[in-house]
């Protein structure tokens, strides 16, 4: 048995590590790596909001039309299979894959995520994923709304210029050149919508550990989180 399995065997099976923060704070890479280091299940909650935005765009449903989005959710079938260490989803039997990362989806997802009916739906699905625990779940409101009782809460941030550079680097890897200033403007637009919306705005839980990752490598952030979790689990 390796060290990760030894950790997994000892812990309370319902343990949740909540990792929240703004777009391009490094959350996704860090959360995936933390889950891998602990050998626990990883959940990207933003992917589900993106999946709903993707489905709405394809169905010709306007992302601000709450009634139409509600009807769309009611008539579509969502499934959440585990693939390796990650929880994936299909809608009406289809896996949208990388299509949920398209610029169209990125522009409409904040409006979708601001709808109470969408947040209620996603919250319910995310809470049901405790069946796959121990979990590492990343998002905007995991420590505040979805799992306020999460054993471990982290809030990752980085200064806006650094976040824009990181996101531009990701986009360049996918699609060639990216304009850092334009990327920064788009991130700031999304941050503003996510932090000022009425439902579950982006904010750190009072009991979250806040980490400014500006100038830190992914490896450093992961090592710090894993050390806190291992120490906490060992002490439980
Ligand atoms: O993390 P991301 O960029 O994939 O998130 C996509 C959108 O979903 C983003 O606009 C914020 C929203 N979101 C949310 O409101 N609550 C979450 N727990 C996760 C994402």
Please outline what is shown here.
By secondary structure, the protein is of the alpha/beta class. Helix content is about 55%, strand content about 15%.
Protein model, in words:
The structure is a single chain. This protein is α/β, with parallel strands linked by helices and 236 residues long. It has a single domain, classed as P-loop containing nucleotide triphosphate hydrolases (Rossmann fold), CATH 3.40.50. Helices cover 53% and strands 14% of the residues. The protein has a five-stranded parallel beta sheet with strand order 2-7-1-8-9. A two-stranded antiparallel sheet has the order 3-6. A two-stranded antiparallel sheet has the order 4-5. β4 and β5 form a beta hairpin. The protein is globular. The two termini are 21 Å apart. The N terminus is likely disordered. The site of 2'-deoxycytidine-5'-monophosphate has 14 residues, from α3, α5 and α9.
Any key phrases for this structure?
236 residues, alpha/beta, Rossmann fold, two-stranded antiparallel sheet, 9 strands, binds 2'-deoxycytidine-5'-monophosphate
Helix content: 40-55%
Q: What would CATH call the architecture?
A: 3-Layer(aba) Sandwich
Count of helices?
A: 10
- Determine the structural class based on helices, strands and strand pairing: alpha/beta
Q: Report the CATH topology name.
A: Rossmann fold
Q: Total strand count, please?
A: 9
Number of domains: 1
Distance between the termini: 21 Å
Shape: globular
- Ligands, ions, cofactors: 2'-deoxycytidine-5'-monophosphate
What are the segments in which pLDDT stays under 50 over at least 5 consecutive residues? Answer: 1-9
CATH class bucket: Alpha Beta
Major sheet description? 5 strands, parallel
Radius of gyration: 17 Å
Order of helical and strand elements:
HEHEHHEEEEHHEHEHHEH
Rounded mean pLDDT score: 90
Fraction of residues in β-strands: 5-15%
Strand order of the largest sheet: 2-7-1-8-9
Relevant CATH superfamily: P-loop containing nucleotide triphosphate hydrolases
């Amino acid at each position: 048995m390796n060290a990760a399995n030894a950790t997994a065997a000892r812990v309370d099976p319902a343990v949740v590590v909540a990792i929240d923060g703004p777009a391009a704070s490094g959350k996704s890479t860090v959360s995936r790596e933390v889950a891998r280091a602990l050998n626990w299940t990883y959940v990207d909650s933003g992917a589900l909001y993106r999946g709903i935005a993707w489905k709405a765009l394809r169905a010709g449903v306007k992302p601000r039309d709450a009634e139409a989005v509600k009807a769309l959710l009611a008539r579509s079938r969502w499934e959440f299979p585990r693939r390796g260490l990650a929880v994936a989803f299909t809608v009406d039997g289809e896996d949208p894959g990388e299509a949920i990362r398209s610029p169209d989806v990125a522009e409409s997802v904040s409006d979708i995520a601001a709808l109470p009916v969408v947040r209620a739906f996603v919250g319910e699905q995310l809470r049901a994923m405790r069946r796959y625990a121990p979990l590492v779940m990343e998002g905007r409101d995991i420590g505040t709304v979805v799992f306020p009782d999460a054993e471990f809460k982290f809030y990752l941030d980085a200064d806006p210029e650094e976040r824009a550079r990181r996101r531009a680097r990701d986009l360049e890897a996918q699609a060639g050149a990216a304009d850092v200033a334009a990327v920064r403007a788009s991130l700031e637009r999304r941050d503003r919508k996510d932090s000022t919306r009425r439902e579950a705005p982006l904010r750190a839980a009072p009991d979250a550990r806040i980490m400014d990752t500006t100038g830190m490598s992914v490896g450093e952030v992961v090592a710090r989180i894993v050390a806190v979790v291992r120490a906490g689990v060992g002490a439980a």
